[in-house]
Specification:
CATH architecture of the largest domain: Orthogonal Bundle
Keywords: DNA-binding, Sigma factor, Transcription, Transcription regulation
Order of helices and strands: HHHHHHH
Number of domains: 2
InterPro entries: RNA_pol_sigma-70-like (IPR039425), RNA_pol_sigma-70_dom (IPR014284), RNA_pol_sigma70_r2 (IPR007627), RNA_pol_sigma70_r4_t2 (IPR013249)
Radius of gyration: 18 Å
Protein name: Sigma-70 family RNA polymerase sigma factor
CATH superfamily of the largest domain: Winged helix-like DNA-binding domain superfamily/Winged helix DNA-binding domain
Pfam families: Sigma70_r2 (PF04542), Sigma70_r4_2 (PF08281)
Length: about 170
């Protein structure tokens, strides 16, 4: 197996999740994932190993996303499609969980793009603050502050949406 094939097998899902989180569109994320790896194949000879391969791949994915978002940005599909609990689960529990997941996706999409990006990279992909700084081209302090702000904004917005969804005034 070639190095490119190994990279694809290892990083296709994390890159897809990142792009899905950024676009909110399953099909666009699939296309951007393919475009990301196309760009990786084209430019792999330029990778000097100055950073970790993960960081470089996410930088390529970020560049691919930025090019796409300059052309078009859609919010037409649900952000998160997580399988619900087992078949034996109470139907009401399934409905409530499905609604909670929908609200989480909606809340994530409502965050400013930079906050959404750092939250996805840190909390979904579990990248280090240093790696996120390299990917975003920002300082470590900026990354930490924006992850903290993103988490706070996400929590505040989610609680408000959840309260409104259950008919409560917040």
């Amino acid at each position: 197996m070639s190095k490119i094939e190994e990279l694809y097998k290892s990083y296709e899902k994390p890159i897809f999740r990142y792009l899905y989180g950024m676009t909110g569109n399953y099909h666009v994320a699939e296309e951007l994932t393919q475009e990301t790896f196309f760009q990786v194949v084209k430019s792999f000879h330029r990778f000097k190993g100055d950073s970790h391969i993960t960081t470089w791949l996410f930088k390529v994915a970020k560049f691919t996303h930025n090019n796409w978002s300059r052309k078009k940005f859609t919010k037409d599909l649900p952000l998160i499609e997580i399988p619900l609990q087992s078949e034996e689960s109470d139907p009401l529990d399934k409905i409530l969980e499905s609604e909670r997941i929908r609200l989480m996706g909606e809340t994530l999409r409502d965050l400013p793009e930079k906050q959404r990006e750092v939250l996805i990279l840190r909390d979904w992909e579990e990248l280090s603050y240093e790696e996120i700084g390299i990917i975003t081209g920002r300082s470590l302090a900026w990354v930490k502050v924006n992850i903290n702000r993103a988490r706070g904004n996400f929590k505040q917005t989610f609680v408000q949406k959840e309260g409104l969804n259950h008919g409560q005034e917040k």
